[in-house]
Model the fold of this input.
Amino acid sequence: MDRSVLDTCRAELQRQQDELMAGAEKTVSDMTSVAEENFPDPTDRALLESNRNFTLRLRDRDRKLLVKIQEAIKRIENGMFGICDGCGGEIEEKRLIARPVTTLCIDCKTVAEEEEVR
Ligand SMILES: [Zn+2]
Done:
């Protein structure tokens, strides 16, 4: 694979990782400050709970993405980056640049999505 494509993908993965880390820290400090506040009104408390559930869901999604990002960085380091998990072929460079965490070429991705629908 082209060296510049690898560098572009690595930089993008790094950027996304930094962004997620910053977001995760913010979420934790938000939750802490909210927990320290006192809500005597049950309506306020219900609202607080639903907000917290939303935050937790976001964090769960972010955590999964973070794992994918770190795996992609690992693949760059061990030379496996851009190899399709499905067929072992090369993933299109355009696709990797647009979404560096991808592990499937477009053909395998299409098949996987069709199977998901079924
Ligand atoms: Zn494939």
